[in-house]
Amino acid sequence: MIHTIVAPIIVFAVIVLVHEFGHFIMAKLTGMKVEEFAIGFGPKICSVRYGETLYSLRILPLGGFNRIMGMDNQEYTDKRAFVNRPVWQKLLVVSAGAAFNILLAFAIFTGVIWHEGKAVFPDYPVIGEVISDTPAERAGLEAGDRILYIGKSKIDKWTDIHGALANAGNTVLEVQISRAGVRHTVTVIPANRDGRTILGITAYVQVTPVSFTESLHMAADRCVAVIVGVGKGLMYIISGSPQGEVAGPIGIARIAGNVADTGILPLLLFIAILSLNLGVMNLLPIPLLDGGVIVLTVLEGLYGRKLPEKTLFYIQMAGIFILGGFFIYAMASDITALFR
Questions:
Q1: What is the CATH number of domain 127-207?
Q2: pLDDT digits (tens, 9 = 90+) for 206-253
Q3: Active site residues
Q4: Which residues does 278 contact at the CB level (< 8 Å), separation at least 6?
């Protein structure tokens, strides 16, 4: 129960704080005036002023926010205001949030891979894990058992198991195994589940240590794979494909609680994947998102001055409409998943 409540708070807080810290640090580096950096939302619990910036802790621990002078598009005489800075500096500040989300994911992937090593599937017919309440557990199979025969089918590789179990659901099978060098024969009745015949075992996976340099390369590959997956998911949603699935706040909170129950490393990996999703989504050229601000900043740079207020109003209304529709779609998916 605690995981269900605390894990989502940790996940959202880390991802949003890292995003906002990206905007904050880049604003500082480019000489802009940051009026406040807040951890959390809502009423202040406490605050301290260091230099020109107020650092505050607020009551709702779901991320945080920045107040950078001039990001409200009002006129300012201070040359350090966002609206008065060069276009390239504005672009750096706006894109830094998504960049830091991507860097967070890269750092987590690197650390986990370096700590855990590289998992390799050697295709040995050796049981890695026996899943509870399955035919394999009831038959007495154990992790480390080497499967020699299923019925009359000789098993040389893990991939041979699928063929040996084809159309064998709910039938009595003799499975010959080698355990600590001693042969045993057990009787198993495979189950039919979702159109598949299963025993309830997972494959043996060989874990080998990797160097820090290797972990950097593998983490980069993982980030690219997730980003490509996000792109494909967006295309599925836009095209109306049933493969296009999206989780809203309820779904993410539910997943975070479930993942937290399995351990700290899976939770870290979930944070990495979600951080990448947030980073990529925030760069979409939709008004009110960072990507939309980037497009407007570029247009204003080309135009030589601010866009007309009426034009900005219509652009912002379009952004509200798009994001509102996406939020409703995500919430509907969450509610449907709860009843599924």
A1: 2.30.42.10
A2: 888 999 999 999 999 999 998 888 888 777 766 666 555 666 566 666
A3: 20
A4: 15, 19, 98, 101
